[in-house]
Amino acid sequence: MNLQFPEGFLWGGAVAANQLEGAYQDDGKGWSTQDVMPHGIKSAPTEVPTDDNMKLIGIDFYHRYKEDIKLFAEMGFKVFRTSIAWSRIFPKGDELEPNEQGLQFYDDLFDECHKYGIEPLVTISHYETPLHLAREYDGWVNRKMVEFYERYVRTIFNRYKNKVKYWLTFNEINSILEFPFMSGGINTPLEKLSKQDLYQAIHHEFIASALAVKIGHEINPDFKIGCMVLSMPIYPLTPHPDDLIKAMQSDHKNMFFADVHSRGYYPGYMKRFFKENGIHIHFEPGDEEILKHTVDFISFSYYMSTCETADPEKQIRGEGNLLGGVPNPYLEASEWGWQIDPQGLRYVMNMFYDRYQKPLFIVENGLGAVDQLVVDGNGEKIVNDDYRINYLQDHLVQVAEAIADGVEVMGYTSWGCIDLVSATSAELKKRYGFIYVDRHDDGSGTLERYRKKSFHWYKEVIESNGQSL
Ligand code: BG6
């Protein structure tokens, strides 16, 4: 098959500040929600940061980023997706003045990227709300968050207006439905959080996101600002019409987020849901107008698909990327139980594009696996990660299929291009990278970096603009 990727396709990799930077209180950084999540979503947050939290040191990217970006450049990256840790810029979140040392760090980081012709793609909020905002304000339930976010956004947009062109407002914004603390800095536990407060919090995020689009375009009309959603196509478990409707309704819960971001208004199916659940979203004067500042592109993560059924006896919830559903009997799964479905990526890309006709950016995709560092024939340390190469290869072929279907795609950043701490389980043994980092869950390791087999494979993919696939 002759795979065609457009000229200027943005090939690269993605990470998030809290999963790799470490230096959790260096240079004036405040604590974030991640600093009190030593086991990811697997247990309740702790009061204060504890030593068993792998993210406090991460892979020490904060001090080693020059070495890492050099390796990304060696692979030929055109783009590098990372996030700004909000609590480096506003340590508590509600200050009026930013922390200059935090700003300087990202200046240096973006300069380092540009040195190699790598374009930064920046997530403004990636699961790392300043902890003070969670504890004092209950996160996005509180309308004051819009003001704090706006101040933060104005600060970074003005500061980096000539260094960053591509921005994402909230990472996987729809994950707030299941993980309000991690995703929305909401301190109230999910079981105590009313639907009213949850959807009001979502409304506040929509307003903040649309304001970011408005302000960003005023500051630099060349900015491209996207939303970021966790995409997971939901298939009916059987052809029974009840299963189809159930799948559609589950899908609506997620599509709602991309719909508002792309169309600028609430869809009818959500109005019905609000009515049936006694939810009244409070719109402040001007909110409807603000929402009309729709995103320039849709970005999304894609790891897996899932199924839905109306049959109560078959509603077994499988493992999965935050919003898992009923397992698909036709698919195999990763070591962490995430079902592997490359064609689901082609499907989801067609679906987004047909729905919005806006360009897409695949900003996360990859395989979390246990890797073995071995010594090869030349005495070099390497990981023979053919399983990762196969996963990425199969998914990229489907990206090419979607492009052939007419879908407009800006780029692809594979998740965790260098090993980092996992979000759901906060482990390091779940590795995604092209670059192996010698650090382990017991805290041991030298933090040395090693090229995996996939490193050389991805380099060739980029060099050939996908022709080598
Ligand atoms: C996405 C997140 O949900 O999936 C990332 O945006 C996360 O932050 C990635 O790391 C993979 O999940 P995990 O739990 O394997 O790290």
TrEMBL record:
Keywords: Glycosidase, Hydrolase. It holds the Pfam family Glyco_hydro_1. The keyword Hydrolase applies. Signal peptide: none annotated. The active site is at E364. InterPro entries: GH (IPR017853), GH_1_N_CS (IPR033132), Glyco_hydro_1 (IPR001360), Glyco_hydro_1_AS (IPR018120). Coiled coil: none annotated. The keyword Hydrolase applies. Belongs to the glycosyl hydrolase 1 family. PANTHER family: 6-PHOSPHO-BETA-GLUCOSIDASE ASCB-RELATED (PTHR10353:SF122), GLYCOSYL HYDROLASE (PTHR10353). This is 6-phospho-beta-glucosidase. It comes from Paenibacillus odorifer.
